[in-house]
């Protein structure tokens, strides 16, 4: 291809006509088969004097074919071509004057260098860049810094020896360079280097640069260089989250500078700069909260918090908030100030934040200017979440003082109404309990249909919508009993609003809010709402039909009212249940089926979302009866779940252009990739995934026809989605998909559980994907969800009859597994994956403790550490529970895996020098293998000394776990436990009679020690007979209810077996009878629990064992409550 033809092809690639552009793309793709020719042709264009548009495109294409394409042309190019590329790129950069092209070429040089520098394939680059950094040509200095920004990872790993000399001097000089954009490029390059460093020690070697960074920011401000200043603050924000501690030495200078940037420039077009400066301050507060709390005289809060109040004064006088939302695309200063106050108050804590905030609120609330009152109430809505309950009245007092329209601007009244809703959300249910009467009265007043004197109609509508929103917030965190006295008044007002008609947009909006409030009331009241069903359903149905008619007539109205009405009807159905809804459900579902196939559904995101969620609620309401609607719902639900919402961006400029042009697009950096995210699609996808997870859980075996397809859709999303809720829904669905297969096969009779069984195949597939997700998931909450799902998948495959119903589980524990579905290799893989999670948890804890050892923590930081420790403890408990489930479901196959992969770790963690929390975790694992794995009971020589060592601990949970383990060893270990009987009894007897044994904090541990003593006494005859009555005197157990029930059942079993402690020693029989009578009188157990039935049977047995005269004596010695309990039993 001649040069002229190549130029024409480039022009065609920029053509508006698709056919021309597509043909050019095909020609270029074919040309790439010749790497050398393609690279040299692109370089020729870049070096030429052609149009900047063509040269710019050539620069983009060169970067793409060198680095970005799946098959890089660089690796296929001849050595001479590679040499030409490197030389020509530097040559062109030396003389290029077009800033955009120069930037693209710098990026190409930087990306190419990142891939070949470490192999020593571009020795000329760094000397050239260091020469340019001292050049008198400002473009050279900027270009060099942009290249350094691109090769920051190489610098972080291969140039550490030069950090204190060459590299630091480079940045010192460049950050203080006032010409062009050098200082900004220096800050960007340094920021990328900082983000590329793994070790804090390496990072802190650059702290001498901090004064220069401050100088650069100050110079940009003084020189009026707004664009550079804004971009520099964006860099700071990105650095503060991971590296706030790096900036601590200059915070006392950086904060006042940002305060100045927020405070000045209100009328000089610096809107974005003020907001970014506030975001820097917020980032400092969130990521260096302790440093902010340590400012002298609470200086950070005193300087910064007034700025947020001042920003909230920038409120428009003539419009309602609703009109403002419609009119403005940019975030307002009111929003910036409010959000900043909320985030900083939460980060810094109420002790430092509230006194200043309350002082400002009082000052602003008493100001005659309504804007100040508005700012005061707006501030209250942001900080109410951290207000201690003891100071709640002070907040409520301010709100009620401004909630009536007399003498107050409508906007002040509006935000006061909003504050009532926020109080209900953040301080509920305490706020509802103390102020329900006043709040409901105010909200009912503003929900009235009649116009208010001296209030423009637009504000009447506005007050109604805000009152309805506040009502919904009030109801959502309210106890049904508290709503009950107001139900008729509330429903009357809501029906009046529903009957307004919706000729105007305002009336339609009020109806939408009224229907939403009705949904909340139904959800709050639950089944008791059934008595209002006949009053509520007809107007809702009429509203739905009216809305549908409008849609069919294509009147151009929003589908929101139709969607909200669908939501309300489905929530009412969920609340009252199918018994009340009856035949009406079929009518609504038929209407939804028609909507599902309508053109409006296909083209309207709002309607699709509401309809999908309504289907899911009907599924939960009707359970298996809903299955016949699955063919209607599933195609669109699967389509929504399979939508692509995340796209990798190839070019920075393309990314910026798309971001600017489309508000629905967000840009995220994920795993070193730039990703464009369509937020509306992502939200719809998340809703669909949640619906799929919910439906399979509700329908179980009825969902079986869709299991394979849904599994294929959801399993990749456990790892590939950036959306937390999508990952969570996909993870949570896995156990229910396994259960659906298990229960479906169970319906067709027992199936052989070999490697080809569908259940085994499904289990292997889901566990593999879950384990992979566990290895990549960054969020601890989702790590816990994954481990719970792993446990549930196995349980559902092994025991499909026990399908997770907690009520049934309490009454009918799952039967032991007869079939072990996982082999040795699979169990080992699971255990190894869980051990990695445990090691990471220990590492995080070690890092926190090391930090705490060298830093002085304040109260808020100590509270945060307690929260972190609690989260890690919960994660470790779930991990141990998951391992215990493996022992329970694989009693013979798991113990060899335990010996190979876990035993050494357990023996290491249980040592006396280890943390008591770690020792407890190790004992949990020992308890599980002793309880479920018979081969483990042959290893009591390993486990019992370990348990005896731990049971003497002063840490109650460890003593409790070790006592439980000793009880297991005594009951299940047989003769192997005999050598340890005397020493164990002696130690446990000492513990249960210790000074603190029956203190509340030690009660559960003592209960388990008492239970262990009982296990030994009932299984070994060598102990003195006098111990049994002394042991009975320690009963009943009052702390650990679960262990108490198990112990009573063992005692009842001894009664039925005529155990020697009763048959050989009849004097013990009355004591046991009295004990059981005492337990009955205390009502420790429900009558439908198995333990209650065991006691009933044992008491009948004891009655036959006790002579009448003895029985009479025992009866007389009992309390009236015990006598009443026995009388009721034997009546």
Automatic annotation (TrEMBL):
Residues 98-255 form the IPO4/5-like TPR repeats domain. Keywords: Coiled coil, Cytoplasm, Nucleus, Protein transport, Repeat, Transport. SUPFAM superfamilies: ARM repeat. Residues 843-874 form a coiled coil. It is found in: Cytoplasm; Nucleus. Its main location: cytoplasm. GO terms for biological process: protein import into nucleus. GO terms for cellular component: cytoplasm; nucleus. InterPro entries: ARM-like, ARM-type_fold, Importin_beta, Importin_rep_4, Importin_rep_6, TPR_IPO4/5. This is IPO4/5-like TPR repeats domain-containing protein.
């Amino acid at each position: 291809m001649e040069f002229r033809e190549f130029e024409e092809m480039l022009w065609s690639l920029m053509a508006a006509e698709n056919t021309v552009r597509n043909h050019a793309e095909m020609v270029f793709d074919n040309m790439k088969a010749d790497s050398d020719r393609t690279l040299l042709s692109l370089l020729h264009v870049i070096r030429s004097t052609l149009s900047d548009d063509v040269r710019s495109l050539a620069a983009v294409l060169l970067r793409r074919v060198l680095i970005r394409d799946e098959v890089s042309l660089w690796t296929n190019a001849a050595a001479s071509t590679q040499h030409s590329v490197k030389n020509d790129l530097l040559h062109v950069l030396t003389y290029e004057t077009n800033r955009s092209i120069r930037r693209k070429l710098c990026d190409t040089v930087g990306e190419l260098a990142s891939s070949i520098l470490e192999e020593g394939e571009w020795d000329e680059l760094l000397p050239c860049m260091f020469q340019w950094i001292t050049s008198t040509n400002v473009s050279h200095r900027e270009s060099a810094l942009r290249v350094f920004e691109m090769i920051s990872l190489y610098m972080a790993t291969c140039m550490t020896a030069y950090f204190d000399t060459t590299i630091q001097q480079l940045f010192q000089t460049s950050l203080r360079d006032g010409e062009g954009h050098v200082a900004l490029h220096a800050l960007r390059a340094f920021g990328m280097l900082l983000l590329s460093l793994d070790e804090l020690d390496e990072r802190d070697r650059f702290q001498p640069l901090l004064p220069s960074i401050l100088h650069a920011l100050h110079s940009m401000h003084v020189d009026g260089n707004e664009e550079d200043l804004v971009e520099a603050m964006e860099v700071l924000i990105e650095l503060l989250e991971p590296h706030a501690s790096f900036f601590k030495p200059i915070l006392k200078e950086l904060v006042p500078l940002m305060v100045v940037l927020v405070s000045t420039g209100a009328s000089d077009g610096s809107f974005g700069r003020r907001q970014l400066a506030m975001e820097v301050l917020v980032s400092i507060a969130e990521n260096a909260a302790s440093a902010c709390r340590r400012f002298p005289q609470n200086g950070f809060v005193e300087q910064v918090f007034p700025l947020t109040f001042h920003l909230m004064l920038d409120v428009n006088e003539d419009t309602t908030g609703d009109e403002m939302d419609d009119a403005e695309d940019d975030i307002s200063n009111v929003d910036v100030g409010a959000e900043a106050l909320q985030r900083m108050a939460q980060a810094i804590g109420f002790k430092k934040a509230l006194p200043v905030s309350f002082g400002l609120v009082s000052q602003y609330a008493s100001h005659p200017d309504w804007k100040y009152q508005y700012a005061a109430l707006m501030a209250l809505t942001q900080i109410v979440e951290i207000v201690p309950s003891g100071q709640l009245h002070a907040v409520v007092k301010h709100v009620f003082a401004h909630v009536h329209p007399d003498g107050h601007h409508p906007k002040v009244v509006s935000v006061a109404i909003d504050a009532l809703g926020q109080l209900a959300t953040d301080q509920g249910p305490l706020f509802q309990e103390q102020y329900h009467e006043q709040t409901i009265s105010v909200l009912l007043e503003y929900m009235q249909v009649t116009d208010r004197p001296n209030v423009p109609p637009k504000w009447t509508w506005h007050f109604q919508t805000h009152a309805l929103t506040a009502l919904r917030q009030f109801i959502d965190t309210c106890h049904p009993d508290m709503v009950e006295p107001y139900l008729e008044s509330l429903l009357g007002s809501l029906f009046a609003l529903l009957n307004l008609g919706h000729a105007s947009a305002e009336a339609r909006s009020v109806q939408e809010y009224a229907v939403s409030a009705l949904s909340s009331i139904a959800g709050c009241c639950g089944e008791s709402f059934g008595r209002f069903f006949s009053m509520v359903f007809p107007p809702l149905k009429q509203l739905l039909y009216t809305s549908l008619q409008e849609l069919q007539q294509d009147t151009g109205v929003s589908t929101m009212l139709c969607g909200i009405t669908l939501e309300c009807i489905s929530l009412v159905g969920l609340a009252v249940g199918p018994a009340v809804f009856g035949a009406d459900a079929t009518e609504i579902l038929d209407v939804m089926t028609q909507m599902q196939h309508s053109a409006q559904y296909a083209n309207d995101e709002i309607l699709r979302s509401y309809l999908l969620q309504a289907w899911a609620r009907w599924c939960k309401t009707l359970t298996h009866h809903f299955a016949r609607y699955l063919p209607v719902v599933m195609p669109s639900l699967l389509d929504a779940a399979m939508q692509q919402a995340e796209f990798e961006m190839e070019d920075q400029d393309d990314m910026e252009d798309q971001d600017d042009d489309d508000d629905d697009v967000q840009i995220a950096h994920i795993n070193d990739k730039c990703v464009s995210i369509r937020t509306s699609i992502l939200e719809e996808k998340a809703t669909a995934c949640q619906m799929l997870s919910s439906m399979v859980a509700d329908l179980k075996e009825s969902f079986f026809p869709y299991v394979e397809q849904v599994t294929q859709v959801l399993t990749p999303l456990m790892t590939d989605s950036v959306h937390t809720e999508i990952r969570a829904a996909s993870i949570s669905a896995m156990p229910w998909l396994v259960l659906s297969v298990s229960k479906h096969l169970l319906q067709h009779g027992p199936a052989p559980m070999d490697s080809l069984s569908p259940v085994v195949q499904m289990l292997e597939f889901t566990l593999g994907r879950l384990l992979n997700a566990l290895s990549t998931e960054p969020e601890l909450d989702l790590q816990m969800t994954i481990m719970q799902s792993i446990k549930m998948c196995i349980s559902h495959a092994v025991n499909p009859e026990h399908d997770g119903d907690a009520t049934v589980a309490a009454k009918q524990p799952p039967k032991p597994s007869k079939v072990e579905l996982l082999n040795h290799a699979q169990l080992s893989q699971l255990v190894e994956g869980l051990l990695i999670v445990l090691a990471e948890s220990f590492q995080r804890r070690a890092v926190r403790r090391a930090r705490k050892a060298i830093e002085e923590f304040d109260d808020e930081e100590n509270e945060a550490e307690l929260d972190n420790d609690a989260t890690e403890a919960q994660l470790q408990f779930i991990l141990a529970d998951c391992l215990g489930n493996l022992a329970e479901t694989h009693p013979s196959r798991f113990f060899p895996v335990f010996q190979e992969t876990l035993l050494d770790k357990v023996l290491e963690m249980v040592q006396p020098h280890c943390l008591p929390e770690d020792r407890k975790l190790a004992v949990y694992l020992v308890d599980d293998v002793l309880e479920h794995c018979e081969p483990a009971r042959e290893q009591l020589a390993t486990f019992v000394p370990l348990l005896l060592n731990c049971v003497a601990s002063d840490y109650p949970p460890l003593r409790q776990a070790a006592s439980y383990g000793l009880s297991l060893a005594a009951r299940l270990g047989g003769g192997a436990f005999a050598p340890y009987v005397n020493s164990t009894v002696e130690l446990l007897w000492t513990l249960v009679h210790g000074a603190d044994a029956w203190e509340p904090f030690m009660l559960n541990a003592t209960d388990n020690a008492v239970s262990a003593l009982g296990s030994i006494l009932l299984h070994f005859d060598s102990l003195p007979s006098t111990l049994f009555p002394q042991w009975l005197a320690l009963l009943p157990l009052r702390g650990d209810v679960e262990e108490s029930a198990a112990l009573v059942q063992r005692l009842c079993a001894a009664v039925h077996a005529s155990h020697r402690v009763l048959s050989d020693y009849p004097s013990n029989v009355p004591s046991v009878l009295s004990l059981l009578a005492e337990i009955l009188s205390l009502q420790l157990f429900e009558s439908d629990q198995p333990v209650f039935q065991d006691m009933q049977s044992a008491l009948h047995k004891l009655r036959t064992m006790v002579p009448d005269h003895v029985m009479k004596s025992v009866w007389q010695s009992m309390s009236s409550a015990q006598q009443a309990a026995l009388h009721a039993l034997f009546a």
